[in-house]
Design a protein that fits this description.
The chain has six helices and eight strands; from the N terminus they run βαβαβαβαβαβαββ. The chain is of the alpha/beta class and 206 residues long. About 23% of the residues have low confidence.
């Protein structure tokens, strides 16, 4: 079961929902927090994200979220991944905006603190090879990566294949979704590009 939080929740209620659960009568059941999806939220802030991370989700999705000014900081992102980094396997931070929520900031902290990440979607986040290299070096076994709309260079993709291409279970390919992948030629069978994101497999146990 997924726990989804949408913009219909009133401003200020989201943090209360996470900390004291006035809106979710079943939120004391930690199984509800295994997969968390937050969509179209414009009130993200450090304490809100940290409170969410304390429930230690295995999968976290922030989709089309945004924040104002310094509501989300570098320190806040570090605390977020410190709380859930030991268990987080799937991270999707897609099409968001705000000075603190940059693709590289997310990947730098996730790479340093989330070694168990299996699948990552950082599409349309402005991520560059700097953040991607941090993720590649920090994750122990990536099976899927989506970087559509990101400024990733050939060197970073080759580094991904070199480290993670031989670690996929049962010799499965790494799924790399990239809007400009066709510009490059990768003879290694370690990389495949499924035509539809629905072909992504969730980490085991989800």
């Amino acid at each position: 079961m997924d726990l989804c939080i949408f913009p219909s929740v009133a401003q200020g209620a989201c943090s209360s929902c996470i900390s004291v659960s006035p809106l979710l009568s079943g939120s004391s059941d930690e199984s509800l927090w295994k997969r968390v999806q937050i969509s179209d939220c414009c009130i993200l802030e450090d304490n809100w994200l940290v409170a969410l991370a304390c429930h230690q989700p295995c999968s976290l999705t922030l989709h089309r979220c945004r924040h104002a000014s310094q509501a989300v900081t570098d320190h806040g992102l570090k605390r977020l991944f410190q709380h859930c980094g030991a268990i987080l396997q799937e991270l999707n931070v897609i099409s968001y905006s705000g000075p603190g929520l940059t693709g590289d900031n997310v990947l730098l902290h996730a790479g340093a603190l989330c070694s168990k990440l299996i699948a990552v979607d950082i599409s349309w986040s402005g991520a560059t090879d700097v953040g991607m290299m941090a993720l590649i070096q920090g994750a122990s076994s990536l099976h899927g990566l989506s970087i559509n709309g990101c400024q990733i260079i050939d060197k970073a993709i080759k580094a991904l294949v070199k480290k993670h291409g031989k670690q996929s279970p049962q010799n499965k390919s790494i799924w790399l979704l990239c809007s400009y992948l066709q510009e490059y030629s990768y003879p290694s069978p370690a990389v495949s590009t499924p035509a539809d994101p629905q072909h992504w497999e969730s980490p085991q146990g989800f």
